[in-house]
Amino acid sequence: MSLLTVFLLLQGLLVVPVTSISEAVGYVGEDITLPFGANASLSLSVIEWSILSNNTLIATYRNGAIKLDRFHLYKGRLTLNAQTGDLTILNLSQKDAMEYTVRAEHASTEIQKKIRLAVKQRLQAPTIRVNYTTATETGCFLLLTCSSPDDGVGFFWKVQPHCWHSWNNTEGDPSQLVAYCNTQESVEFTCTSKRQKETMEAISTEFKIKCDGCRTEASTA
């Protein structure tokens, strides 16, 4: 039992210990809310959010007053909900990735929670380039490449409408697609980059070419 716990017990507070560390993921430049998740009817009397092993305070609620500018790295980037105890960090940076501790008091009970925040960079749109193209009597033959400024991504191609023949590699960067399209109409190529270790995050770029003379029509991210 820690000295702090003994002290709080002597003060008549029932301490609810931290049983686990929850995980949260945010993205550079975006905002994130770290939840304490108290019921608004509890009327919290004290809220303290801290970081580092020495429990450096970054946001507090005491005696009805919220104080947010306690630590220079978070100046102007925090909001604290005095009803729920939730802390919002604005404009995330990689430096915000760490473990956060929240301590709150309600009546004669003290509750503590820990949240480990990971900060990631969102995927950037891939770039499609035309490396080679030549018109045929019935359509066009072309070689496209797709590249990404991000590391550790795989590539996926989609051709609409479907060409007679197409081949692509998905592992290299840049990824290549070779296609022979037997049409005089527009063909749309979509390249999607996706993090190989994540299942949800992906971003696509579309490129349209008119096979009547292999003229580029548009390229949109």
Automatic annotation (TrEMBL):
Superkingdom per UniProt: Eukaryota
Localization of this protein: Membrane
Record's protein name: Transcript variant X2
Signal peptide: 1-20
Lineage, top ranks: Eukaryota, Metazoa, Chordata, Craniata, Vertebrata
Keyword Membrane carried by entry: yes
SUPFAM superfamilies: Immunoglobulin
Domain Immunoglobulin as annotated: residue spans: 21-120
SMART domains per record: IG (SM00409)
Provenance organism: Nothobranchius furzeri (Turquoise killifish)
Principal cellular location given in the protein's record: membrane
Entry keywords, A to Z: Glycoprotein, Membrane, Signal
GO cellular component: membrane
